[in-house]
Write a structure and sequence with these properties.
By secondary structure, this protein is an alpha/beta fold. It has one domain: Nucleoside phosphorylase domain (Rossmann fold, 3-Layer(aba) Sandwich). The chain is built from 5 helices and 13 strands. The strands form 2 sheets. Strands 1, 2, 3, 4, 5, 6, 7, 9, 10, 11 and 12 form an 11-stranded mixed beta sheet that branches. The protein is globular. The two termini are 31 Å apart. The relative contact order is 0.23.
Length: 266
């Protein structure tokens, strides 16, 4: 049978899931702080939704408590997680308004917004501490559900590409973007790196869907107007919702396995 509960983490421009049936709010206390979940049913699947930034974009990317978000989803009992993010393209082959289902990650700093190491293992001797070992960080069955979901929704989605995590809240210089492009990064945003790593450590299968709102600094001859970026940010919520709705219907019949393996100590 398909997973009985799916976590969905949304970002800029998508602060709620209006299609949740019987939705209620649950505040989950974790050892890293509290997280508010919106829980309901969507496409016959229980969904627990986290808004990274909160209503009114109260939290900038530098304020997001990623560890609380991921642990709250795990404590709630989700079986897998979809993340969505608006992003800036490092290739002109990524059309504005198109979707990207990422298959690799550039997050070399591996740091949380407060500068600490991005890990659930924050204390020496903590039970279950260890190393997450993998070939690719994103769940292939969940990626396939997103690609099929976008196709069913009539939307253009690029299959694959390296997601680059950059620290916010500022945008990047031309030199920084050239460096990332040289590493093979296809698109960037400011929040999904920690989610990928923490979901991996928590053994929660995770896949990331991007929506291109602009070309990063220096990628195109003329910069993307801010008015166009903000317009597409608003449009992104509908594209994410349509893709996710179809993706939920296309989850694998068997439970999705965690990505990679874990070398743990008791």
């Amino acid at each position: 049978m398909a997973p009985v509960s799916i976590g969905i983490i949304t970002g800029s421009g998508a602060y709620s899931l209006p299609d949740l049936e019987g939705a209620f709010t649950r505040t989950v206390q974790t050892r890293f702080g509290a997280c508010e979940l919106s829980v309901g049913e969507w496409q016959g699947v229980e969904v627990a939704h986290v808004s990274r930034h909160g209503a009114g974009h109260a939290r900038l990317s530098s304020h997001v408590n990623h560890r609380a978000n991921v642990l709250a989803l795990r404590q709630h009992g989700v079986d897998a997680v979809f993340g969505v993010t608006i992003c800036g393209a490092l290739e002109q082959t990524l059309e504005l308004g198109s979707l990207v289902v990422f298959d690799d990650l550039y997050f070399l700093a591996n740091r949380l917004p407060d500068g600490s190491i991005c890990s659930l293992y924050d204390q020496p001797g903590s039970p279950g501490r260890g190393h997450w070992v993998y070939e690719r960080p994103f769940s292939e069955p969940l990626r396939r559900a997103l690609l099929d979901g976008a196709d069913a929704a009539g939307l253009s989605a690029h299959d694959g590409g390296c997601y680059g995590h950059v620290d916010g809240p500022r945008f990047n210089t031309r030199t920084e973007i050239r460096m990332l492009a040289g590493c093979g990064v296809r698109a960037v945003s400011q929040t999904a790196g920690p989610e990928t790593v923490l979901c991996g450590e928590a053994e929660l299968p995770y896949a990331l869907l991007g929506y291109v709102t602009d070309y990063a600094n220096g990628v195109s001859e003329l910069p993307t107007p801010v008015s166009e970026l903000t317009r597409l940010m608003g449009v992104s919520a509908g594209a994410f919702s349509a893709t996710l709705a179809h993706a939920l219907r296309r989850l694998p019949a068997d439970p999705v396995a965690p990505v990679g393996i874990h070398i743990r100590w008791p």
